[in-house]
Amino acid sequence: MKKNILLYFLIIASLQGFTQATPNLAKIQYGETLFVNGLSIEFVKVISDSRCPEGVTCVRAGEAKILINIYQEDNLIESKELIFYPSGVTNTSDDILFNGDGLIINALSLSPYPEVHHRIPEKMYCLDIEIL
User: Fold this and answer.
1) Could you give the number of structural domains in the chain?
2) What tens digit of pLDDT does each residue of 54-72 get?
């Protein structure tokens, strides 16, 4: 009986090493910068937003493009153009903003989503990210 209990605790202890960390979610408003572990992620520009507005039937779904800058200790390490499709997600190969030093930062979505007859002011755009 004692062997079974010991085996049980050893299995539970070993499985805890394989659990993933809970991701942290953050938002970066247009024109603002997010600081994470020596990195700075700046939402620089909305290049375009041609996503099909809600309630409208479009021939082409469109996309939104934004530009972000990533700095490490005040040195620009990358300017990155992100493309968001109407589903709200980026291209999976482009959604990783940073991967290094035990830190992964992913782009998740861009809001708000366009509505009919309402132009979105640039300052209203917000980039949702995940920090692992």
Assistant:
1) 1
2) 888 888 889 999 999 999 9
Surface-to-core class of residue 43, CB atoms within 10 Å of its CB (0-12 exposed, 13-18 middle, 19+ buried): buried
Domain that holds residue 124: 22-131
Closest CA to 51 of 122, 116, 126: 116
* Regions of the chain with pLDDT less than 70: 1-21, 87-94
pLDDT tens per residue, range 71-92: 999 999 999 999 998 765 555 6
Cα torsion at 83, 88, 93, 94 (round to 10°)? 40
CATH number at residue 119: 2.60.98
